[in-house]
């Protein structure tokens, strides 16, 4: 362990993700890159990121909204961005990595904010290490064995092709509807990801991207998990027209996780929480603060 | 300029690409990574690599075959693998980078061995800086404005999708026929690329890959170059069934480059020269040695 955020209490509090310093911690032979912001001392909120995503893929409006009152930590999965090692070929292994990373930082209890693949990883983590997680936010995601999750590969490659042909960011196709509202929201989202201008992360590698896609397909074709094992307060959110992880799977999660809250945003896709960040960021902050 | 291979004449001669040291040279704010092998002192052979390729993408059977008697230098394009900077969005800019790299190493005359995108870059380089290149080998490539080069994007994404679904390397689909001979040749080629076990290069980033693809499409839709400006002895080679850069474009290059030699291998695709490395490596070495 090379550093612990708990030892840095003399530093000024950063509350803008664009300015959050990138740190590293090495454990079990893997160096994890992470960024942290917000006031320290209480239970941190760990952000679990999506397919092909690095530290530069979090919407600052959502991170900043939560970091006003909470210690937020975003990290690069193993083999992604500035984290070393090989990209794991299963969601279970990614959950083991998340556990390794969190405990290496010295935390015994955390809240989890997860999006898409991150939400799959978070579910596996919570089921295996229930005591580690206090509250859970699952966005744009679905359960192990969820119907049509295994179609993500075709959708993803098709949208990357469309985006490449139109010189756009693939996320504009993958995360947002192709109507006026969605196109505008997509452009704005992509622009927000560029607000950080210094110390940006390394791009996702093509090979690791393919490995992550395969891991998601495998997760989609797996035996379902027993979601009654998730007893944490859980907030579930998505757009109503998610083509990557079908929106109906958010309903499914809601039915199977007792006491969970569900928010489905209209006229939006996989990136519904980013399109509706004005509403969602305070909602998530309030849920975590309760 | 941080180093020059000409100053390293006291080192032992490496003739195996798997053992070639990786070096860097910094010029115009870009650090280029390269590997060199073979006896130094005479005109070097510079290898121009393909789409999405790093230093780890050269078939050692072909490199080694030429490095027995020639100083071989392979390099990472700007923004690819261990070379720094942004991936250029045009083939012209890649050719300018190649010129910058070669002249930074202190060479006034080189031979060029180019494959696929590398062959497009090489043509632009030769047309702009004719005096720099003595002999030219163009493999699996086509001319600026070549018919159907702009279809490469669909073919490439489709084959990456197929490869991801079947847990194969995309090059097995993109470079080889899907018959018994091609499948076997593809597996063997991919295995040969793994012969180097230490000091391997960084993977191609997804974003840079997309930028390169767009550059190739733009090249395919450009006004043709005047290939009569290529007066260098030129060897052209390809498989007879290239789906990425149609084989007929090798014929076209042959018609338009005066005095060029053409070799088309049967029952093979874009990676025909790798499938027929037993024949092609000595042929290329002989052509360069004439």
UniProtKB/TrEMBL annotation, chains A, B:
Q: Keyword Hydrolase on this protein?
A: yes
Domain AB hydrolase-1: residue ranges: 45-274
Q: Which InterPro entries does this UniProt record tie to the protein?
A: AB_hydrolase (IPR050471), AB_hydrolase_1 (IPR000073), AB_hydrolase_fold (IPR029058)
Top-rank taxon:
Bacteria
Q: Does the keyword Repeat apply?
A: no
Question: Where, if anywhere, are coiled coils annotated?
Answer: none
Q: Which Pfam families match?
A: Abhydrolase_1 (PF00561)
* PANTHER family linked to this entry: AB HYDROLASE-1 DOMAIN-CONTAINING PROTEIN, HYDROLASE, ALPHA/BETA FOLD FAMILY PROTEIN
What name has this protein been given in UniProt? Alpha/beta hydrolase
